[in-house]
């Protein structure tokens, strides 16, 4: 549904493809990447009550800096995904 809203939305922030030096989080931080920010806004704005951003641990500090820089209320939950599947 175009423009639909949901109680909860999960956005997975994956690693960059091999050979691609810029990660999506780097694009979100740059003032010259309006398309990357637009895509984030579209996904994030679908959440009515809960927005979950999932990222590999190696990108957590960058994501924290972006969210805190935007002065957004954030709760961090680290999950051991290996423990979940074993």
UniProtKB/TrEMBL annotation:
InterPro entries, alphabetized: P-loop_NTPase
The protein's name in its UniProt record: UvrD-like helicase C-terminal domain-containing protein
Lineage of the species this protein comes from: Bacteria, Bacillati, Actinomycetota, Actinomycetes, Mycobacteriales
């Amino acid at each position: 549904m175009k423009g639909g809203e949901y109680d909860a939305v999960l956005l997975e922030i994956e690693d960059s493809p091999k050979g691609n030096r810029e990660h999506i989080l780097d694009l979100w931080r740059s003032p010259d990447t309006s398309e990357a920010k637009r895509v984030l806004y579209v996904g994030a704005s679908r959440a009515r009550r809960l927005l979950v951003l999932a990222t590999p641990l190696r990108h957590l500090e960058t994501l924290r800096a972006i969210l805190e820089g935007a002065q957004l209320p954030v709760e961090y939950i680290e999950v051991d995904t290996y423990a979940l599947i074993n």
